[in-house]
Amino acid sequence: MRVLVLGIGNVMFADEGIGVHFTKMIEKNFKFKSPEHTLSFIDGGTLANLLSPIIADFDHVIVVDCIDADEANIADVYFFDFEDMPKSINWSGSAHEIEMLQTLEMMDLVGDRPRTKILGIIPKRIDPMSFELSNEIKKGVPVMQKVILKHLESLGFKYEKVADFSISDIANDWKKEQF
């Protein structure tokens, strides 16, 4: 089975970039092994529809993003099957969030969407031209990490911690690379 961890978001809009930063953090901090499966990590940014051919090449996809949900608190973490989405998820966040939903729905229509899980966290700030993650969302990262490691383990992956980069380290490195 080919598994993809797909980080989505705009890193220039504060907490909106959590999916991209989190995916990179997991990739840098852990080494994954499976005798029968492959694991890939991709920074999907805000590309949404352009990701369809990439997503279709995998058997299992985990989309990591900030999400919006009714009556949720900042940094609440959600993990669910795309087919069994909680009713509280309202997809009323950013434009890329809505485009990602539409992309997955279009892939469903043509039969190209692999099994899809969503790992989402409620953001505090989505500010234009801010690379800084809020302290609240940083506190939710350990929960996200536990969830994704447990899920990957359930798929047959063994993992070893090889580094200890924080989410802030990753976000700050990205900022340095761009400027």
TrEMBL record:
GO terms for MF: aspartic-type endopeptidase activity; enzyme activator activity
Keywords of this entry: Aspartyl protease, Hydrolase, Protease
Transmembrane spans: none
Gene Ontology terms: biological process: protein processing
InterPro entries (alphabetical): Pept_HybD-like_dom_sf, Peptidase_A31
Family: Belongs to the peptidase A31 family.
Name of the protein this chain belongs to: Hydrogenase expression/formation protein
Organism from which the protein derives: Campylobacter hyointestinalis subsp. hyointestinalis
